[in-house]
Amino acid sequence: MKVSYQWLSQYVDVSGFTAGELAEKLTRSGIEVDIVENRNKGVTEVYVGYVKSREKHPDADKLSVCIVDVGKGEDLQIVCGAKNVAAGQKVPVAVVGAKLPGDLAIKRAKLRGVESQGMICSAKELGLNDKLLPKEIQEGILVLPEDTEIGASILDVLAINDEVMDLDLTPNRSDALSMLGAAYEIGAILGREVKLPQAEQAGTGAVQASERISVEITAKEQCTHYAAALIEGVKVGVSPLWIQNRLMAAGIRPINNIVDVTNYVMLEYGQPLHAFDADKLENGHIDVRLAKAGEKLVTLDEVERTLEPHMLLITDGVKPVAIAGVMGGANSEVTDGTVRILLESAKFDGGTVRKTSRQLGLRSEASLRFEKEVNPEAVLPALHRAASLIAELSGGTVASGVVEARTAEHKPVAIELTVSRINGYLGTSLTVEEVKEIFGRLNFTAEPLEADGLLVHVPSRRGDITRAVDLIEEVARLHGYDNIPTTLMHGVTTPGALTKEQSIRRLTRTLLTGSGLHEAITYSFTHPDQIAAYPGAYGDAQPVKLAMPMSEERSVLRTSLIPHLLDVAVYNRNRNQDDVAVFEIGRVFVTGEAALSTLPQEKLLLAALLTGKRSELHWTGKPGSVDFYDLKGVLEGLLSYLGIDAKYVPAQPKGFHPGRTAEIAVERDGVRKVVGVIGQLHPELQQQKDLSDTYVLEVELETLAELVDDSFTYKPLPRFPAISRDTAVVVDRTVAVGDLVAKAQETAGGLLESIQVFDIYTGERLGENKKSVAISLVYRTLERTLTDEEVSELHGHVVASLEEAFGAELRK
Q1: Alpha-carbon torsion 429, 431, 432, 436, what sign?
Q2: Which of 161, 180, 461, 626 is the most buried (most CB within 10 A)?
Q3: What is the pTM of this model?
Q4: 650: left (phi over 0), alpha (psi -120 to 50) or beta
Q5: 153-194 residue pLDDT tens
């Protein structure tokens, strides 16, 4: 909303404050002012001149020699090149010494041998936006009205000595989309009274408006009030300069005295109006109804619009004549031959206007205001004001009375609140009288209640205020945000922190990236065939279908993370990146219902994939390919850090290699639970994807998070030395290494500090189906130094237990 400083001063006393100072106060009180624009772009010493005569230049066909009176006692001779200059005109004249925009200085000059003592100016040369000028004066010099005073400063005549504040309004402050709304705001800030324009009913004609026009509302929900006035005997012409100046300051191009008045009053009251040629309406009837399917209307921009049933129309009972709140129709347009005007002022539903405007691609100043809901009590005052101005400027007569129809009455808003509640919210110590004074500046009526209570009556122009907290906000901004005291927080405070699951996810991401894996983020949607090819750990889960999928490729929710990691590997391989190490932390969606009646269960999983070489090509040695134990090492490094002990059970789920796959199991409440799977892809699936040996794992991360003990236990550094013993035993290949380690721990008891398998060897020298397992054991006690003899004796018991339990033999 562009607010002219000069126009604003007509409604509220702004003396003592510049436009810049008002802009600062508005911004500090909650309405941001983007910019303050000075309309004077550098014009000085330009006056209204009267062209006494015009003669052709003796040596130039396109130049004229004019004698001009600028009211200074001596006529000026000016050479002018404009085609439209003529004797008898009043024009802007820049005298010698004048300045024009662009630092153009006017000096005495000779043009083709003839002296020129100034310059007759066009509107563009005065710094005016020619796009906002009437079409007839966009080219050539600016011709002023005949009644313009000779010698008057052009700065006053064209209101160039004005500043315009551009308000950046939030959607709730539609009341400030008018000059009166801005005046109320400035009046409240400065504590000054607002002077309203004359808006009394102007009907003085002998004819009753109800005898010539009638109004009917068929769409009762979309239009709650429609009022019409009749003005007869009008003469369509050019508006006076004062209206043109104010419209151009607001960014609106003047058209004619009828349309300009409707725009002027719209800017003044925030209430859009529309003028119809009454003689083009059937029997002077107005019917506000919804459009019929396929109905068409040619709007004022000469475009034929196809209408839909949700669009609100103004009709004459036979044909549509306007799209309500958006744009009028060409079949009822006011033209130079119009003599009777039907003037409309109405309250249309904002949602209906918004939907229509957007669908048709028609955005206007009127639709902008209707979308944000206009003041229901401004319908009649704006109508009376516009009718009076049209009669004054066009010589017409306003018929007596207003014809109107209503479908709903506006209910005034009254809100109760207490001053103690205001102070509690704001941290202030305002008194009842101070709060009442603030509401008084806003033109809100505040009635005292018991104790410190108030009943505040909110005027209809402030539709954004519906609750007590809205009133508290008004008190805050007018009291001044800078005046609200600063107080320290008090009470119980809780420091922010990550949840346990969030911490585990972050830790897992850090550990895996530190292990050389890259994180992938893939779609939660997938193709049904991918679930069929690799169902994952939830093979019996039913795929959850999307109601409106973007494509067949993304039509169901995933039940496993691995298929998309395979897609990542294939994508990289197709771009010559054969060595891939990636992981993803994400959710899958599991349900056992074929026809979904409840929400699916969401599972947080961790998946990882390795394929290609273990390291890059290097002169120190040929890089080997990744294998099962590379991926197992990544997982065990994570589990070890989380303090979780896992077991590996041979398995053969769908999509995995039959002999190189294991389920991952953990102990929970004394029960072993399978939480994931790790292994090599099935050769057929690898061949289908054109991948080399590929290893994947998938594990329930939320289950692991539940098992993590996130409490920290610190122990002092040991004071006594440790003694280590290394042992290599030969056992059958079927013996699990984990069972060997468990038996050794059980036998060694409390003196065993750590145990680690550091080598596994198979070969012909050991015999068929035999393997050698090398184990390192570290013994220590915190109470004393162990002797070599007692460690040797204990270590002997450990070896003996392995021999007894697994038939192990010491390797020689």
Answers
A1: negative
A2: 180
A3: 0.67
A4: beta
A5: 999 999 999 999 999 998 889 999 999 999 999 999 999 999
